[in-house]
Amino acid sequence: MVTGRGPTDRGPTDERDASLRRLVDALVARGAVALRLEPPGLDRLLRSIVEATVALFDAEAASIALVDPDGRLRFRVAAGDQGAGVVGLVVEPGEGIAGFVLATAQPIAISDVTTDPRFDREAAAATGYVPRSLLAVPLESGDRVIGVLEVLDRRGGKAFDLRDVSLAGVFARQAATAIEVSRTERDVVALVAAGLAAAAAGTSADRADAPDWEAVAADAAGRLATDVEPGFWDLVDRLARLRVADQSRVRLAIDVLEVALRYVARDGGSASPGRPTRGPSWRDRAGLEAE
To answer: Is 76 exposed, middle or buried (0-12, 13-18, 19+ CB in 10 A)?
Structure first.
């Protein structure tokens, strides 16, 4: 007689752990989306900060970029005569001046961007304005950089100096504080891990092979940041615009999305000529059915 379980056999405890892991994926994914769909009040507050920055420095423009869940910088707000074009621009870590500040957490002031190899002229031209000089400082929360504040071209041609770097740092700290206060759900991994630890208590706490739920949640967050296709976040960004829409327009958007979901379900995700095959979505990986 064979005793024990084979490698493919699953007992009640294994099934419970598997179910909780799926719950981790779902909660982390929903938490990341919640962070992306921040209330419009945050943008208003950040915009007031860049407007004050422009006024203090008598600058052509100022902007704030925040770190997305995928680790890239996205410019959220801007002010000044030459600022509007940068909103929505996405920057990779280490790319351009803002990417350099994100990667190094070091402030930087450049009096002539044409002499600095880190300056991405092509990206600047895409915004409709190529500055002569600029100042960039990190927005920091603890030991993490969560964004970058940039100031472009003081009117009159005066170069940025160390005092300006210090003053910009004050505005950066204000912005970072506002972001952290707004993001009440920011520590998704810790919240999920704590909840799962409580849910699993009494069934797995005394097991030697009990999962490390904090590690499981951290792994889920890491996979979400690296595996989710960019198109998903583009969709989330578009949905974010509905925050200030009236209910009739929200209802219309839901109806349109419902039609799109039915089309995708009927199509089955198969590739067609001229269209690349897409990998499994975050919902597929979380084991959830379409709502």
So the answer is: buried
Domain range spanning residue 214? 12-37+187-270+277-286
Strand duo 144-154 + 73-79: pairing: unpaired
Q: Are 41 and 170 in contact (CB under 8 A)?
A: no
**Two tokens at 238?**
């578009």
Is residue 291 situated within a structural domain?
Answer: no
Pairwise CA distance, residues 277 & 99, whole Å: 30
Which residues partner with 154 through β-bridges? 59
Based on the structure, what is the number of domains in the chain? 2
Poorest-pLDDT segment among 81-90, 149-158, 210-219, 243-252: 210-219
Q: What is the DSSP string of 209-243?
A: T---HHHHHHHHHHHHHHHS-HHHHHHHHHHHGGG
Q: Hey, what are 259's tokens?
A: 């039609």
Strands 144-154 and 134-141: antiparallel
Do residues 46 and 140 both lie within one domain? yes
Residues 129-179 pLDDT 10s: 999 999 999 999 888 899 999 999 999 888 899 999 999 998 899 888 888
pLDDT at residue 41, rounded to an integer:
67
Query: Helix or strand or coil: residue 4?
Result: coil
Q: Is residue 260 part of a domain?
A: yes
pLDDT band at 239 (very low <50, low <70, confident <90, very high): confident
